[in-house]
Specification:
Layout (H helix, E strand, L loop, with lengths): L4 H12 L3 E12 L5 E9 L5 E5 L2
Antiparallel strand pairs: 1-2, 2-3
Length: 57
Protein backbone atom coordinates (compact mmCIF):
# COMPACT_ATOMS: atom_id res chain seq x y z
CA UNK A 1 0.00 0.00 0.00
CA UNK A 2 1.26 3.48 -0.81
CA UNK A 3 1.85 5.90 2.02
CA UNK A 4 0.51 9.43 1.78
CA UNK A 5 2.77 12.45 2.17
CA UNK A 6 1.46 12.88 5.70
CA UNK A 7 2.24 9.27 6.61
CA UNK A 8 5.77 9.63 5.22
CA UNK A 9 6.23 12.81 7.27
CA UNK A 10 5.01 11.08 10.44
CA UNK A 11 7.41 8.19 9.77
CA UNK A 12 10.31 10.64 9.37
CA UNK A 13 9.41 12.35 12.65
CA UNK A 14 9.20 9.03 14.50
CA UNK A 15 12.57 7.93 13.12
CA UNK A 16 14.24 11.27 13.91
CA UNK A 17 12.80 11.08 17.43
CA UNK A 18 14.34 7.65 17.94
CA UNK A 19 10.99 6.05 18.74
CA UNK A 20 10.34 2.33 18.28
CA UNK A 21 7.27 1.89 16.07
CA UNK A 22 5.54 -0.38 13.60
CA UNK A 23 3.44 0.58 10.60
CA UNK A 24 0.09 -0.90 9.58
CA UNK A 25 -0.39 -2.49 13.00
CA UNK A 26 -3.45 -4.63 13.62
CA UNK A 27 -4.91 -6.41 16.61
CA UNK A 28 -6.16 -9.95 15.90
CA UNK A 29 -9.39 -9.46 17.86
CA UNK A 30 -10.25 -6.02 16.42
CA UNK A 31 -12.20 -6.39 13.19
CA UNK A 32 -14.30 -4.10 11.06
CA UNK A 33 -17.87 -4.76 9.98
CA UNK A 34 -16.53 -6.76 7.03
CA UNK A 35 -14.77 -9.13 9.44
CA UNK A 36 -11.32 -8.00 8.27
CA UNK A 37 -8.75 -6.77 10.80
CA UNK A 38 -8.57 -3.01 11.35
CA UNK A 39 -5.10 -1.55 10.84
CA UNK A 40 -3.63 1.52 12.41
CA UNK A 41 -1.06 3.62 10.54
CA UNK A 42 1.50 3.61 13.36
CA UNK A 43 1.86 2.07 16.80
CA UNK A 44 4.59 3.52 19.00
CA UNK A 45 6.07 1.43 21.79
CA UNK A 46 7.57 2.49 25.12
CA UNK A 47 10.95 1.33 26.40
CA UNK A 48 9.40 -1.85 27.82
CA UNK A 49 7.87 -2.85 24.46
CA UNK A 50 4.32 -1.96 25.48
CA UNK A 51 2.09 0.13 23.24
CA UNK A 52 2.50 3.76 24.23
CA UNK A 53 0.23 5.36 21.63
CA UNK A 54 -1.40 4.80 18.25
CA UNK A 55 -1.41 7.19 15.30
CA UNK A 56 -4.11 7.04 12.64
CA UNK A 57 -3.57 9.64 9.94
Amino acid sequence: MRASRGERLIEEILIESGLHFKEEYSFPDLKGTSGRPLRFDFVVFDDDGNIDFIIEY
